[in-house]
From TrEMBL:
InterPro entries: Dynamin (IPR022812), Dynamin_GTPase (IPR001401), Dynamin_GTPase_CS (IPR019762), Dynamin_N (IPR045063), Dynamin_stalk (IPR000375), G_DYNAMIN_dom (IPR030381), GED (IPR003130), P-loop_NTPase (IPR027417)
Family (UniProt): Belongs to the TRAFAC class dynamin-like GTPase superfamily. Dynamin/Fzo/YdjA family.
Compartments (UniProt record): Cytoplasm, Cytoskeleton
Name of this protein: Dynamin-type G domain-containing protein
Any one GO cellular component localisation term in the record: microtubule
GO terms assigned for molecular function: GTP binding; GTPase activity; microtubule binding
Keywords for this protein: Cytoplasm, Cytoskeleton, GTP-binding, Hydrolase, Microtubule, Motor protein, Nucleotide-binding
């Protein structure tokens, strides 16, 4: 094998092995175009007991596959062969990545055990492949897929659909345009009845991808041969038929070495009167070289499309990585920096909601401009300042000694009672703004793209914001109630000093009665007197109401700012996703570089 061929096929094997490790092979992650499906491989197809396992073992030069009667291969076996320059042969399974098998009897047992893990001890099948890599100085770089043998009848212990299930599974592998079909047929059966040839012809009618292999030539009836098939007269393919002589059952029972078996195969063809003239193009060693050469041809033809797929996958992965975000640093300083950056991103979105760049802040203005004034207008001052209630409060305030000029204590009690009504709207405004702020925090967290990869951080921000807003709400309520209490604790004296002057001025207006004559109008026992008291209190309360309407929003806004403490803990599933993306990205970039390094060689 030329160095170029080894480079190309070895490259494909390495990419396939990496795809296997990442789980990105047929039926794998649909988020990306599967590189596995784009890479050429050899699918081994045949009926049960057609000699498939023996052909594979002859190519590998090792006895490692399960044997028995009926259906033995119950899961696809993806067999990747790697030629090494020197050293001991060994095998590795993708499900046991850190374990090397040098005893191939243990390889056989692991295949059986791994099959049973999915299918049990039954005769059922599974489409989930087993991936096996063999490293040896005696193999060629090659990927072979051993598929369950085709059958015509379900036996006891199998489902009624198993015939169709096996055929569907086989088709899923050989329908791929990059798949090379190795159709195994026994020479001691009529080629017209070959299950392998029939299904290969269905998916590859021109025969461009099909290689015919004739097994059990040594078991044909005496006086007969398979020259019509091998020389392409019975059924012609684009590629030459290859005859194989497997180990006999007696040789298998005696554990005859595969090196000896290969020598005996060469001797059979070299000394056969029927096949001697074809000896150089027969046997398992020739078949392995033929398949490697065909793989090289296919790989060369597919390099442009493979490169295009790799570049497309790289673009998709880099876009995905940008969406997922770059990995979080492990040192504390870098993590703190990341936290601060995320906090700034959240703070920016939150401020945009408050300041008008995003919707939401207008709802707070609505509380101040509509909800609070409406609540103040609905306060029951008419009932509190009714004539009957004013008389009652003023009389109670006077006690046993009625007031002389103005009922100061009565005024104070009426005003204090009126101002107490402001508590409800003031506290309701705080609650309304608190509700809006909580909703804006929730929206801001959801709209901060950088936070989406950190669910724990999102939860901590939400919790910290909730705690802070709750604390600030209580502070706001205390502040606005304090504003109301301040108005109650000290009345604006100038307002009331003007009242006697207004009365006197009313009496001295041109055309009006003299001041003395006006005295009866302010008789402390008359209804007019109490109505005037109610009117004065109402005027004062109106003035305070306007002050409250202006100052409460200031107090609420001042008190309900939030400072949040944060933690950083990324979603494990997202971390795993990013790691997978990073590995795939590394794989594809490495594959692109390797393809570039060998594709120019001819």
């Amino acid at each position: 094998m030329t160095a170029t061929m080894e480079s190309l096929i070895g490259l494909v094997n390495r990419i396939q092995r990496a795809c296997t490790a990442l789980g990105d092979y047929g039926g794998g992650d649909t988020a990306f175009s599967s590189l596995w499906d784009a890479l050429p491989s050899v699918a081994v197809v045949g009926g049960q007991s057609s000699g498939k396992s023996s052909v594979l073992e002859s190519i590998v030069g090792r006895d490692f596959l399960p044997r028995g009667s009926g259906i033995v291969t119950r899961r696809p076996l993806v067999l990747q062969l790697y030629r090494i320059d020197e050293g001991q042969e060994y095998a590795e399974f993708s499900h046991l990545p850190r374990r090397k098998f040098s005893d191939f009897a243990m390889v056989r047992k692991e295949i059986e055990d791994e099959t049973d893990r999915l299918t049990g001890k039954s005769k059922q099948i599974s489409p989930v492949p087993i991936h096996l890599s063999i490293y040896s100085p005696y193999v060629v770089n090659l990927t072979l897929i051993d598929l369950p043998g085709l059958t015509k009848v379900a036996v006891e212990g199998q489902s009624e659909n198993i015939v169709q299930d096996i055929e569907n599974m086989v088709r899923s592998y050989i329908e791929k345009p990059n798949s090379i079909i190795l159709a195994i047929s026994p020479a001691n059966q009529d080629i017209a009845t070959s299950d392998a040839i029939k299904i290969a012809r269905d998916v590859d009618p021109t025969g461009d991808r099909t290689f015919g292999v004739l097994t059990k030539l040594d078991l044909m009836d005496k006086g007969t041969n398979a020259l019509d098939v091998l020389e392409g007269r019975s059924y012609r393919l684009q590629h030459p038929w290859v005859g194989i002589v497997n180990r006999s059952q007696a040789d298998i029972n005696k554990n005859v070495d595969m090196v000896i078996a290969r020598r005996k195969e060469r001797e059979y063809f070299a000394t056969s009167p029927d096949y001697g003239h074809l000896a150089s193009k027969m046997g398992s060693e020739y078949l392995a070289k033929l398949l490697s050469k065909q793989l090289e041809t296919v790989i060369r033809a597919r390099i442009p499309s493979i490169t295009s797929l790799i570049n497309k996958s790289i673009d998709e992965l880099e876009s995905e990585m940008d969406h997922l975000g770059r990995p979080v640093a492990v040192d504390a300083g870098a993590q703190l920096y990341t936290i601060l950056e995320l906090c700034r991103a959240f703070d920016r979105i939150f401020k945009e909601h408050l300041d008008g760049g995003r919707p939401g802040g207008d709802r707070i203005y609505g509380v101040f401009d509509n909800q609070l004034p409406a609540a103040l207008r609905k306060l029951p001052f008419d009932r509190h300042l009714s004539l009957q209630n004013v008389k009652k409060i003023v009389s109670e305030a006077d006690g046993y000694q009625p007031h002389l000029i103005a009922p100061e204590q009565g005024y104070r009690r009426l005003i204090e009672g009126s101002l107490n009504y402001f508590r409800g709207p003031a506290e309701a405004s705080v609650d309304a703004v608190h509700f809006v702020l909580k909703e804006l925090v929730r929206k801001s967290i959801g709209e901060t793209q950088e936070l989406r990869r950190f669910p724990t951080l999102q939860a901590e921000i939400a919790a910290a914001a909730g705690e802070a807003l709750e604390r600030f709400r209580e502070e706001s309520k205390k502040t606005v109630v304090r504003l109301v209490d301040m108005e109650s604790s000290y009345l604006t004296v100038d307002f009331f000093r003007k009242l006697p002057q207004e009365i006197e001025n009313a009496g001295n207006r041109p055309g009006g009665p003299p001041a003395a004559a006006a005295a009866p109008a302010i008789d402390r026992y008359s209804e007019g007197h109490f109505r005037r008291i109610a009117s004065n209190v109402s005027s004062y309360v109106g003035m305070v109401s306007e002050t409250i309407r202006i100052t409460i929003p200031k107090a609420v806004v001042y008190c309900q700012g939030a400072q949040l403490g944060l933690l950083l803990d990324e979603d494990p599933a997202l971390m795993e996703r990013r790691q997978q993306c990073a590995k795939r990205l590394e794989l594809y970039k490495s594959a692109r570089d390797e393809i570039d390094s060998v594709s120019w060689i001819r």
